[in-house]
Write a structure and sequence with these properties.
One of its GO terms (biological process) is methylation. Helices cover 34% and strands 23% of the residues. The chain is α/β, with parallel strands linked by helices. Helix 8 links the parallel strand 10 and strand 11.
Length: 374
Amino acid sequence: MIHWVEDDQPRSARWRSESGNAAPKRVVIADDRMTADTAYRLACEGTGMLWRGDFQNARQLLQALARRAEPKTEKRGKPRQPPASPKDAFNLHRQAQSQRARTLGMLLLPFDADYSIPLRRAPDVQLACNEAYGQPSEPFVASLRELLGLIGAHEWRKKGVEIPALGDRIHPHYGVYSPVRGEYIGLVAQAPLPSTKLAFDIGTGTGVLAALLAKRGVARVIATDMDPRALTCARENLARLDADDKVTLMQTDLFPEGRAPLVICNPPWVPARPSSPIEHAVYDPESRMLRGFLGGLAAHLEPGGEGWLILSDLAEHLGLRSRAELIEAIDAGGLKVLEKIDIRPQHPKASDPSDPLHAARAAELTSLWRLAAR
């Protein structure tokens, strides 16, 4: 619950945060009269501001807070010291991201039980909230920043992501990793299939790789995921692509029972702690999923079968995991490398010198490791 005082009366409501943030301990009422400087000071102190003014003015205030939360430029004659290592650069970047998210998350909105927002000029966000939160049940308070994330995810879901290898679009749901890094899909589209009888897709997410395998002629695909949101998302995408008759979805951790001639996995690429539940598709603490896949792969391969590991080497360039550690995990799993197929990323950050992690991104390769049991 979140608590505040309004009109000299104690009030409370349910607190919602998909990012897992705790409710602010102190909350004040804010409206169109609040200046950006005052709001920024309160936000930095950890004070939540429950908005009672015009919705569009709240959006403008959030933009003003975002500008104030940008890193300050160094004074002339005092150049900024570069981080001592790529790992330090990554940790500082994550720390700055986390602090910025906390600060911007202090501008709060009231929601009625039907997901309507009782503010002037508030948009209709009921569909976006339904997609992320499920059926409405009671009034609550959430941050404006989170709402804008929900709206953005809703637009992505409507528009979809063009997948040239499929000749169609994938529509990601809120909290499910969007396949915007198309180079890894291209690797799967071109690698030689060891069999078209059966494949396991471990951690299917949106279902994009399961759909691609079905399109390539694999007769049966068993696609697994732990996240109910991902399974719902994959089910809708596979039905839209007319691939649901070839793909069976299963909620399980890593492998289904049995063996297959092809087992494919695209685990989170960065071994770091996620700062929110929806970051689990990007960050894999201590490489848990990667090590689980490599440790159990041999036992789930048919004789002569292949395991396809799709992995970026960004973690290596950031100093978070060495190539030696990866090779050691492959060897410990009783596996051997048949081939490694590489491709360079095409996303904008790979060529953006202003990105804090530009050096690592510029050197990054995405690889499909073709593995087999020894």
